[in-house]
């Protein structure tokens, strides 16, 4: 392709493109091949004309001397001007020539010309003419033009603008194109996927309409427009923007910015400014990821501004998903607050709680735990075993097993003393538990047959507590199930509105299960911590749940970097999920009889918390104090005040007699120290002793066998004083494909 062919191809463009295309390098010549030039002879090598020589002889000598002097002066002046011209031309040469010299043999945009017609209703009709130097490297079939339609306002809300493609041409003829949705806009893929472009200069023309791009302020209206976009993967030699205002509106102020995103360079100029029209162009070629941004303002009243009602409508429409997420979260939280308040409501509440210095009549420590927790939990059986030890009805030993395979846990049946018998008579549930553990035996080991005894005893205790005390608990499971259905409806509404608003939401939706699992595991961990559970499962839950939570947050942040308010559609439903799950526990209440029992339990808990009273003051010896501490320790653990109860008896082991008594008590519990250690830690040790070992299983899954072998295979104010490249409406970028 010759240089004249390039000129004919670009003849349809306006003046700013013509003087750039002249400098485009011919694409048909191979690199390093010089075009043959005509040899130019020096003056003294040229052939002289005799006739001309004769005419010169007729000029007098003085006149010839004067003419020679004048000619020398003129030649000297012209030489000086010629020497100065290249330096001056270097600074004022057009960007097309500069880019051609700067990017030899590379693909680049020769010219990017944009005509923006501002309509009276506020719409913009934009025509972009993009001349590219295609070499078949990146630009193989055509170009892609990205246009953002989703912006973030200064107050953090979403702003969605309209965008409709009116037509696409290449070299003056219609060109096929396809629209592809992006996370924050639209991509126009121009070209035929089954046809490759011929190398050379090609001119693309894109015509589109866009809405809501203008800024309407108190004393002026404004267009703040990213002409080229800052996402182009190739340099732009020359960029021109012509803004056409309706009714020949006067131009109040202009501004321009060049460079990468956020830059405030001024490598551009206003070529022409007159009523109704202003033209901008760059003065230095734009490199990759650089763009031209302009701002123009005009008096108010020329372009129709949206009404206040329209502005409210646009804000609600653009942020519908976030609005549904926030409103649904508030309504669902209000539902649980109201329902939880109703579960705690009483018809006749006492004026104050009366302290009790003994446990409620007829209630053992497991029964108190059941009522306080509104049901069975993992600690009820352990607390029952501790109370049996405190009543001297059994003892836990750690000795060598029958086969000498190491130290094993052994449970030994004892005959309780008078105080222990009175405690056993307080609640027949303890006798049932003791009988279920031992039966006709006086001892058993935790391993072998003892594991079945422990499992049966645990199941018997749970069923007995349900039979005796479930009638005092008002189960509001219907309200909890209703909350679950409301949460599912809330989640569906968030997903629907998120998809309805358009854009790529795959990452946001993919983060939901990660957030749900992470927050759910952390909620379980928090419940374990509140129950003074052992730290082993807590650490495991943290190691399991935190990566899920961080992964969900990372995916959510990456997918919503431009519009973070959209992340609320996934974050808020995930935050509500632990409440929905825990509601099946905390929405349980008490009947009137249950409230009366809880009043007595609260009075006894007050005594355990303060650890004072006439009975405690009447104790004189260390043995008496230690026996009282041990007797009520199961109740303190059941009510989660074990540390406070233990603190009231600190210092009992300071004497020799006290140390011996503490050691004797420790031996009763299989070496677990409920006095020096925190009760929660010793409780965890007892819990491991009374937990049956897991049932052994085969190495293969059901249905498999190892005996067979086989094989397997928007606009914003402040653009004049604090604007920057890449801000404002428009923007985007593009590349070849």
TrEMBL record:
Alphabetical keyword list: Membrane, Transmembrane, Transmembrane helix
Transmembrane segments: 65-84, 320-338, 484-503, 509-529, 536-558, 564-584
Biased composition, class Gly residues, residue ranges: 725-737
The DUF2207 domain, residue ranges: 111-298
Top-level lineage group: Bacteria
Residue ranges annotated for the Predicted membrane protein YciQ-like C-terminal domain, each copy included: 540-649
Compositionally biased tracts (Low complexity): 696-724
Family annotation (InterPro entries): DUF2207, YciQ-like_C
Pfam families per the UniProt record, alphabetical: DUF2207, DUF2207_C
Region spans: Disordered: 685-737
Glycoprotein keyword on record: no
Name used for this protein in its record: DUF2207 domain-containing protein
Protein's organism: Achromobacter aloeverae
Organism lineage string: Bacteria, Pseudomonadati, Pseudomonadota, Betaproteobacteria, Burkholderiales
């Amino acid at each position: 392709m010759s240089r004249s062919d390039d000129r004919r191809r670009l003849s349809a463009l306006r003046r700013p493109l013509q003087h750039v295309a002249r400098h485009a390098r011919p694409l048909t010549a191979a690199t390093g091949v010089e075009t043959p030039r005509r040899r130019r002879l020096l003056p003294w090598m040229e052939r002289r004309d005799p006739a001309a020589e004769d005419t010169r002889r007729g000029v007098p000598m003085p006149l010839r001397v004067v003419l020679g002097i004048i000619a020398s002066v003129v030649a000297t002046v012209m030489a000086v001007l010629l020497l100065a011209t290249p330096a001056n031309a270097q600074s004022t040469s057009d960007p097309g020539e500069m880019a051609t010299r700067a990017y030899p043999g590379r693909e680049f945009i020769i010219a990017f010309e944009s005509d923006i017609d501002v309509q009276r209703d506020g719409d913009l009709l934009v025509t972009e003419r993009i001349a590219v130097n295609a070499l078949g490297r990146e630009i193989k079939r055509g170009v892609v033009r990205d246009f953002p339609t989703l912006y973030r306002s200064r107050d953090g809300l979403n702003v969605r603008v309209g965008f409709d493609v009116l037509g696409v041409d290449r070299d003056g003829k219609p060109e096929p194109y396809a629209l592809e949705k992006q996370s924050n806009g639209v991509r126009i893929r121009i070209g035929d996927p089954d046809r490759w472009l011929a190398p050379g200069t090609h001119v693309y023309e894109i015509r589109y309409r866009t809405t809501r791009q203008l800024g309407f302020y108190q004393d002026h209206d404004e267009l703040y427009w990213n002409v080229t976009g800052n996402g182009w993967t190739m340099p732009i030699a020359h960029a021109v923007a012509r803004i056409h205002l309706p009714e020949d509106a006067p131009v109040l102020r202009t501004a321009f910015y060049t460079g990468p995103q956020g830059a405030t360079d001024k490598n551009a100029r206003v070529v022409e400014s007159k009523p109704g029209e202003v033209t901008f162009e760059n003065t230095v070629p734009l490199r990759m990821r650089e763009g031209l941004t302009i701002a123009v303002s005009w008096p108010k009243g020329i372009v129709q501004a949206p009404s206040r009602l329209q502005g409210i409508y646009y804000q609600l429409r653009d942020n519908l998903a976030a609005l549904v997420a926030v409103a649904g979260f508030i309504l669902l939280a209000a539902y649980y607050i109201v329902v939880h308040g109703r579960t705690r409501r009483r018809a006749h509440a006492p004026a104050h709680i009366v302290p009790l210095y003994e446990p409620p009549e007829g209630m053992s420590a497991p029964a108190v735990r059941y009522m306080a927790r509104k049901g069975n939990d993992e600690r009820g059986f352990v607390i029952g075993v501790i109370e049996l030890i405190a009543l001297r009805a059994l003892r836990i030993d750690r000795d060598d097993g029958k086969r000498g395979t190491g130290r094993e846990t052994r449970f030994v049946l004892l005959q309780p003393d008078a105080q222990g018998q009175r405690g056993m008579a307080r609640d027949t549930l303890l006798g049932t538990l003791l009988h279920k553990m031992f039966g006709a035996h006086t001892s058993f080991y935790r391993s072998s047959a003892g594991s079945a005894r422990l499992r049966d005893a645990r199941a018997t205790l749970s069923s007995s507590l349900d039979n005796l005390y479930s009638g005092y608990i008002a189960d509001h499971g219907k309200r909890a199930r209703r909350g679950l259905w409301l949460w599912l409806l809330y989640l569906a509404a968030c997903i629907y509105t998120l998809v309805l608003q358009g854009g790529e939401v795959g990452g946001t939706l993919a983060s939901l299960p990660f957030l749900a699992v992470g927050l759910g595991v952390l909620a379980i961990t928090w419940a374990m911590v509140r129950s003074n559970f052992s730290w082993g499962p807590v650490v495991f839950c943290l190691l399991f749940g935190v990566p899920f939570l961080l992964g969900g947050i990372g995916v959510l942040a990456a997918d919503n970097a431009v519009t973070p308010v959209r992340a609320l559609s996934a974050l808020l439903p995930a935050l509500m999920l632990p409440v929905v799950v825990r509601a099946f526990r905390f929405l349980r209440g008490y009947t009137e009889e249950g409230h009366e029992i809880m009043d007595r339990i609260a009075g006894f808990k007050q005594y355990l918390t303060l650890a004072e009273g006439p009975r405690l003051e009447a104790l004189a010896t260390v043995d008496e104090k230690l026996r009282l501490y041990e007797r009520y320790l199961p109740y303190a653990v059941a009510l989660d005040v074990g540390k406070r109860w233990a603190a009231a008896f600190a210092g009992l082991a300071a004497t020799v007699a006290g140390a011996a008594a503490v050691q004797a008590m420790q031996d009763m519990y299989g070496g677990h120290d409920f006095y020096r250690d925190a009760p929660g830690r010793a409780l965890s040790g007892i819990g491991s002793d009374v937990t049956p070992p897991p049932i052994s299983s085969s190495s293969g899954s059901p249905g498999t066998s190892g005996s067979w072998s086989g094989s397997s295979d928007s606009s914003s104010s402040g653009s004049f004083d604090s604007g920057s490249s890449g801000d404002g409406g428009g923007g985007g970028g593009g590349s070849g494909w």
